[in-house]
Write a structure and sequence with these properties.
Blueprint: H1 6-33, H2 42-71, H3 75-87, H4 89-93, H5 107-117, H6 125-135
Helix pairs in contact: 1-2, 1-5, 2-3, 5-6
Length: about 140
């Protein structure tokens, strides 16, 4: 029988939800303000923020579903959701290359990246590397 740290999983959901909120607001602010001077494509920039938002939202949703399965005693289904949350995001994160993000990074995007980087031993190393590269100036 699998053992789950539900307290840690709840904390991960809260962190990912906070990151999602920052990214959602950053995407909205960016689209309302239009492209900043020097950015070749507003669409590319917006898609970078949206890709990070997708990573955060998908992972949060999977962890949330895992918690429901844990409460219902469905350990195998919970483990499946957690495995998906950890392995699926690299595909989406690959879209969020540093070139696809506005420079300098908006405060909300920087905050979201720091929040996501703070979740240790959750995302696979490929996703962690994308998050680190995205946060570099």
């Amino acid at each position: 029988m699998a053992s789950f740290d539900t307290g840690r999983l709840c904390a991960i959901v809260k962190i990912l939800d906070q990151a999602s909120t920052h990214l959602r607001l950053a995407a909205r602010e960016h689209s309302l303000a239009g492209a900043a001077p020097g950015i070749a494509s507003a669409h590319l920039t917006e898609s970078g923020i949206t890709a990070l938002l997708s990573v955060s939202e998908q992972a949060s949703g999977s962890v949330r579903r895992a918690l429901v399965h844990i409460r219902n005693g469905e350990d195998q289904r919970a483990q499946h959701e957690l495995d998906w949350a950890r392995t699926q995001p690299p595909c989406v994160a690959a879209l969020a290359t540093p070139a696809g993000l506005p420079r300098p990074l908006p405060r909300r995007v920087s905050t979201a990246l720091r929040l996501m980087q703070g979740i240790t031993n959750f995302f696979p190393s490929e996703t962690e590397q994308v998050l680190v590269r995205a946060a570099l100036p």
